[in-house]
């Protein structure tokens, strides 16, 4: 696991965009994209690179991390709609190459199994972007999630519903249930990139990176991954005991070694 501490959210976005750009330029790539506010700066930077530098997403494929149960894809807060308006519709990515979970599927268990199979049939995910919830969740894998879980239905904590209430107007409108890639599913991506900005994420980042590997902090599963990069700003790094070492290691990073 590599911890990259950047001074500002803009620098975080630039580092994350560098990782995605490298994968996109290397050939047809499969991206795992996350919603939430954390990756928004990275999407804006990638859109800028598409317009200014000709970064071409036409051969990329995208799988979403999670989805609310009960919302049609057309609902403006469905993650399918959000990722279209924040990213896919603003670059040259064919919406047919965007894959999401159907939160209105009649048989949610079958939908979850279909999704894992679709990811596998696409050859797996090359780069998976992740945010982190204030309770350490990734995707919608709330504390207590099995570290080897597959895509499935989960019940949101009251805290997560409150955290997401601003997107809906009222907490009463936030669904109680979601479909989310499991921690085991996420762990099969070839490169995990977790992004966090702001002091509100400092405790969750410290628990994920320096705490024990535990279902109590689902993001700690990154500690088991062979290629995980955690990109944070100074505020989100505020509770890291080894922050000086991470900065030192970055300064001395071999020039041939990429993130
Ligand atoms: N399902 C999403 C997560 O994927 C995201 O990481 C989290 C944090 O969101 P934000 O980045 O807005 O803090 O929110 C939701 O729960």
Automatic annotation (TrEMBL):
GO cellular component: cytoplasm
Active site: 66, 135, 137, 142
Gene3D superfamilies linked: 3.40.50.1360
Coiled coil: none
Hydrolase in keyword set: yes
Catalysed reaction, written as an equation: alpha-D-glucosamine 6-phosphate + H2O = beta-D-fructose 6-phosphate + NH4(+)
Regulation: Allosterically activated by N-acetylglucosamine 6-phosphate (GlcNAc6P).
Record-annotated site: Part of the allosteric site: 145, 152, 154-155
InterPro entries: Glc/Gal-6P_isomerase (IPR006148), Glucosamine6P_isomerase (IPR004547), Glucosamine6P_isomerase_CS (IPR018321), NagB/RpiA_transferase-like (IPR037171)
Domain of life: Bacteria
CDD domains, alphabetized: GlcN6P_deaminase
Keyword flag Hydrolase: yes
Family per record: Belongs to the glucosamine/galactosamine-6-phosphate isomerase family. NagB subfamily.
Protein role: Catalyzes the reversible isomerization-deamination of glucosamine 6-phosphate (GlcN6P) to form fructose 6-phosphate (Fru6P) and ammonium ion.
Full protein name: Glucosamine-6-phosphate deaminase
Species this protein is from: Rhodococcus maanshanensis
């Amino acid at each position: 696991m590599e911890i990259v501490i950047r001074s500002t959210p803009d620098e975080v976005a630039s580092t994350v965009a560098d990782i995605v750009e490298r994968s996109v330029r290397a050939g047809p790539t499969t991206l795992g994209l996350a919603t939430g506010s954390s990756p928004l700066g990275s999407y804006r930077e990638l859109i800028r690179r598409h317009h200014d530098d000709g970064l071409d997403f036409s051969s990329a494929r995208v799988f979403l991390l999670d989805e609310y149960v009960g919302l049609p894809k057309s609902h403006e807060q469905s993650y399918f709609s959000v990722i279209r308006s924040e990213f896919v519709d603003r670059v040259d990515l064919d919406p047919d190459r965007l894959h999401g979970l159907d939160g209105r599927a009649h048989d949610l268990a079958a939908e979850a199994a279909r999704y894992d199979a679709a990811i596998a049939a696409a050859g797996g995910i090359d780069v998976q972007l992740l945010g982190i919830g204030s309770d350490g969740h990734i995707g919608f894998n709330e504390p207590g999630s099995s570290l080897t879980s597959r895509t499935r239905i989960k019940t949101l904590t009251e805290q997560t519903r409150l955290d997401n209430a601003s997107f809906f107007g009222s907490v009463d409108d936030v669904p109680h249930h979601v479909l989310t890639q499991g921690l085991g599913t996420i762990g099969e991506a070839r490169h995990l990139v977790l992004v966090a900005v702001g002091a509100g994420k400092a405790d969750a980042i410290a628990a994920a990176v320096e705490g024990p590997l535990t279902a109590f902090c689902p993001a700690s599963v990154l500690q088991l991954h062979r290629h995980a990069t955690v990109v944070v700003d100074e505020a989100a790094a505020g509770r890291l005991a080894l922050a000086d070492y991470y900065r030192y290691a970055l300064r001395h990073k071999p020039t041939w070694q990429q993130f």
